[in-house]
Write a structure and sequence with these properties.
CATH superfamily of the largest domain: Carboxypeptidase-like, regulatory domain
Helix content: 10-25%
Distance between the termini: 83 Å
CATH class of the largest domain: Mainly Beta
Radius of gyration: 28 Å
Shape: globular
Order of helices and strands: HHEEEEEEEEE
Structural class: alpha+beta
Number of domains: 2
CATH architecture of the largest domain: Sandwich
Number of helices: 2
Length: 149
């Protein structure tokens, strides 16, 4: 019985020293991660920026406007469409397609956005909005899945 009391007392003293030392010094990375915090430079605290890019062309046979991720997706003759205004509404980012019909937005914070495409006056000047969610490190090429023009 005396041995058990001695072991129990030693265990309590060791536990007391361990608990007392837990608040001293910098927090461990394990605690920071599972405690809801983040460590500077931790992969978990940084979100990789995303990109939105595409190619806007007119299909030669019928003049229909196509928005695709790259020329590799095209299966028939097309002509690049310059002068199309492309915007990410929530970020107030706006650009125009050049001679090649391409657009590119980089270093975007992940989130929910609207891609706005406005055709030049010579193409009717129509505007179309496409909602999308950008996740960390994603490249959205062309239109969001399920979007129709």
């Amino acid at each position: 019985m005396r041995v058990w009391r001695g072991l129990a007392a030693a265990t309590l003293v060791a536990l007391g020293v361990l608990v007392a030392g837990c608040g001293a010094g910098p927090a461990s990375p394990f605690y920071e991660f599972f405690g809801g915090g983040s460590s500077p430079g931790s992969a978990y605290s940084e979100q990789q920026p995303g990109r939105v890019q595409g190619l806007i062309v007119t299909r030669n046979r019928d003049g229909r406007v196509l928005i695709v991720g790259s020329a590799a997706e095209l299966t028939e003759p097309t002509t690049p469409l310059p002068g199309v205004t492309v915007s990410i509404v929530q970020l107030a980012l706006t650009g125009q397609t050049g001679a090649t019909g391409t657009y590119l937005f980089t270093d975007l914070t992940p989130g929910d956005y609207t891609l706005r495409i406005t055709l030049p006056a010579g193409q009717g000047g129509a505007t179309a909005d496409f909602a999308f969610r950008l996740i960390p490190g994603q490249t959205l090429a062309g239109l969001p899945a399920g979007a129709n023009l």
